[in-house]
Amino acid sequence: MTRHRIALFDASAVALSGLCLVHCLALPLLAAALPLFGAWAEAEWVHILFVAIAVPLTSSALWRSHRQHRLPAALRALAAAGLLGLVLGALGWPAHEWETPLTVAGSLMLASAHVWNWSRRHRH
């Protein structure tokens, strides 16, 4: 796998994390003004869709990068915690009130892991 392709995976994963963050923080504000966006912001399928895209994309990007240059344990833990936050948020576990905080924290951790991985790769 080429470095360019791994960079594309990381960039896609960062973009998806950013999209999740925008979804969680901006859409509720838009929902107050536009009922159509309100329905989309609360739709459970949106959360499941984001997680269904994020998990394989992130896993693939980090696995491919790990095969080239072993990832530090802290980076792997950060990515795993981020994915776990996204999954738990999408599932509404442990309670619905935790959905947004878990998703936002997971998204930030995951984006941080991808940025860290991207900067590591450019140093090698």
TrEMBL record:
The chain crosses the membrane at residues 7-33, 45-63, 75-95, 101-119. InterPro entries: Mercury-R_MerC. Keywords: Membrane, Transmembrane, Transmembrane helix. The keyword Transmembrane helix applies. One of its GO terms (molecular function) is mercury ion transmembrane transporter activity. It comes from the Bacteria. Pfam families: MerC. One of its GO terms (cellular component) is membrane. This is MerC domain-containing protein. It comes from Coralloluteibacterium stylophorae.
